[in-house]
């Protein structure tokens, strides 16, 4: 073997020796260090436990113990470990050889020599190598590491470890606090420890955590054999006493905490360990914004609510919470059964969006994980559900024409409407024959509104027995759940039966007649009171209390009577309207009704209102002067005139109603004749041969025997139908008797023919018909029914002929009487003119003055005769208007004043009054001549003349007629201007001018207004032209014929031409627009109904204003307010 091999083996064994050497050192170091540590622990802990050293002393002990432990650990543990890791570099090979040589005597210094020879082998290779090999062979059999015994070497150190370990074990078993407390206080050398008390301090709070600004209660307890009576808290050098709850339990309240706080408990001179109360910022909301995005259909813009969480919102609102919080790391919301977390926008801002559809409460949870705290804030959300719309319908039926319905009502909703329509069903019996929907206008922006529409139903109710069922339906604009629909109550509209309408007309007529009669009697009483008052005024200078009361009663009575007359007028208008709608009204009766209404209007004019106010004023001032007496006298005259007018109106009304009833009886008889004829045809044999045999008198008996009713039911039906016809005829007979009775009540009864013979014959045939039916003789009954129908036809023709003849006879009589009156007026006028001229030529002292005065007195008597004749005629002639009576009064007053002046021999005043009387006579003659012409035209029309329609007649225009009159006036002006013939010519011209004026006024009446549109630009209004014509009439009557009058006539022609041109242009516009309407159509709306329509349309227009965009809550409150108002209104109704 080589030298190197032996050296390598030896070095390897040396290395193993070194490793075991340091392992032995490490075990020895561990035992020594552990023994030292246990000894120091026992000593230091025991000393601290016994001595309870101060912090400084414990610091010194801690340092000494620390240095000692560090030294031993470094010396005996870390260094051996280091040498092990560095392959024993601290122990050289030579040192190791010496140590090994000491253990193995046979080696001695051989190992050292080998190591030394190795260092020299590089210089003496052969000799050294040989020496090394020789020595190596001697020691190669030895294991160097066996020189170290780990067990024997370290066993001596075990007692040093075992003894303190046993001591510590015993201490831990019997007095552990000596070790634990002493060592703990030495380790916590920088803390102060109080001397241990004979009792124990304990805090019962789960956590010493509180929130800033809040209070915190410390709950403490002392445990031990001997307990002190008091417990204190030591904080920030302040000592405070605990509140004692029991012998061992105490509490102390800390208020308004702002920061962390350290404290100790102290009792009987002993202190507890130091405690620390942590103070945290409480989670809170610094700012909260809730953005509310309302549904579009609500019509309200988005809204933001700041720092308020309670919500009142409509259903479907989208809410977005944006919360800025302090000391919160998480926020959640507990909404109904749902829990949602807010999105964290940044460190302190959180956001959440949610569609709200239900009401309830919600909670915001603010979390602080450091403090382990959950702040809960309660809020509420009230979701206002979209309610069903409310609707009311209060229709007003046209109870006169039955042609339209005023659809009026109210609708309300919380947010608005999408549809409003009238829905109707047309049925006949139980069969539906048609349906329809009519949209109604409404304002989409108004939540509470009224609706209105005039629904024309005359085209729907075109058959008898047709019924309309209708209601109004409204839909709201709910954009979340879809439109909700509500409908009103269902109403019904139908035409009344003919018998009911006729009964209503009769009742209204009778009521009007009774009211008019009461007013006549009341007027008679008023006249008596006025005469009494006039007598009192003549005998007294001053009125006493009773006299004043009498006058006040008279004035009040006049006011009451005026209201009653207005009511009568309205009733008559309604009656006439119903006749126009449901009866075939005679044009003559229609014209008479209009004339009667005109008379009523004239009578209702408040001409005496100013006079009554004047009397009241004088009465209050207690002024019973001549002016007061004159006013009372004027009131008396006016009351007399009104009495005459009412008496005349009563007479004319009775005549018109008799004429109407006669016409209705004739129509009823025609209808009954038709029904009787139909019954006869139903009972007639179906066999033509047998039917022909009925014409043979000899075959009656055979036919009667052969033809019978097929069944008992058919026989009973025929019997019932015939009885009904008999009853209808009895009703007609009763109506005829009533007409005869009412005719006799007239001051001048009509000449009615006796119809009892025809009635008896019809009764007989009807009774025979019943008998034949009861005998089951069908053909015989048919024959008798035919005869009855023929007799009815004869009677109907007789009534029609009688009525026409009666009217013609009366009309002719009236014309003759009116002619006589006009002639007498003209004669009286000429006599007055001649007498006036004679008075101009005599003096009051002249003997002829008395003779002339007697003639004037005689003329007054003649005028009285004319007045009586005219009054009598006026009670039969409708065309005589009230201003004729007034003109007659003017004439009488002028003549009376003239006579009084003549008695005073005041010739000037007498002549002036005579002039006034003559003017009134001429005016009356002109007016009556105009009426006479109308009556003559009516006579011609009744006799079959003038039947051509007005549209085909080539009548001259007003301007042409005025031109012709102007020519005549100019010719008369150029001729002789004196004499009786001249006066007659002037009268004729004045009559023609009056005729043109009347036509002008009639045109004005037809146009339905006082002036034509654009009249001022086109010749002036017709009313202005009419006034100018009337002035010309007066000038002609008073013989004021000159050039200026002719020029004024020419101006009238020019204005008439312009007016006619403007009217033609307007008619062309109307034709282009297609807005032509018949007179009936224009009058189809009754006055009261039209006023109601205008009032409703005005209300609807006022509600067009859109209210401001309130929030849903306030809109809801407004709706509640409207509903309360509506409820109160219904209660008041």
Short description:
It comes from Marivirga tractuosa (strain ATCC 23168 / DSM 4126 / NBRC 15989 / NCIMB 1408 / VKM B-1430 / H-43). It is built from 28 helices and 29 strands.
Count of helix runs:
28
Q: What is the assembly state of the chains in this entry?
A: single chain
For the largest beta-sheet, the strand count, sense and barrel status come to: 6 strands, mixed
Number of strands: 29
Measured on Cα atoms, how large is the radius of gyration? Answer: 67 Å
The pLDDT mean sits at 78
The share of residues in extended strands comes to 15-25%
Low-confidence segments: 686-706, 945-954, 1009-1020, 1073-1083, 1103-1110
Give the N-terminus to C-terminus distance in angstroms: 144 Å
Structural class: alpha+beta
Shape summary: elongated
Report helical residue fraction: 55-70%
Main attributes of the structure:
1133 residues; alpha+beta; Immunoglobulin-like; Coagulation Factor XIII, Chain A, domain 1; six-stranded mixed sheet; five-stranded antiparallel sheet; 28 helices; 59% helix; 16% strand; elongated
How would you describe this structure to a colleague?
The protein has 28 helices and 29 strands. It is of the alpha+beta class and 1133 residues long. Among the domains are: 171 residues, no CATH class; 83 residues, Immunoglobulin-like (Sandwich), CATH 2.60.40.10; 101 residues, Coagulation Factor XIII, Chain A, domain 1, CATH 2.70.50.30; 136 residues, Sandwich (Immunoglobulin-like); 122 residues, Four Helix Bundle (Hemerythrin (Met), subunit A) (Up-down Bundle). The strands form 6 sheets. Strands 2, 4, 5, 8, 9 and 10 form a 6-stranded mixed β-sheet that branches. The relative contact order is 0.04. About 5% of the residues have low confidence. Keywords: Membrane, Transmembrane, Transmembrane helix. This is Chromosome segregation ATPase-like protein. It comes from Marivirga tractuosa (strain ATCC 23168 / DSM 4126 / NBRC 15989 / NCIMB 1408 / VKM B-1430 / H-43).
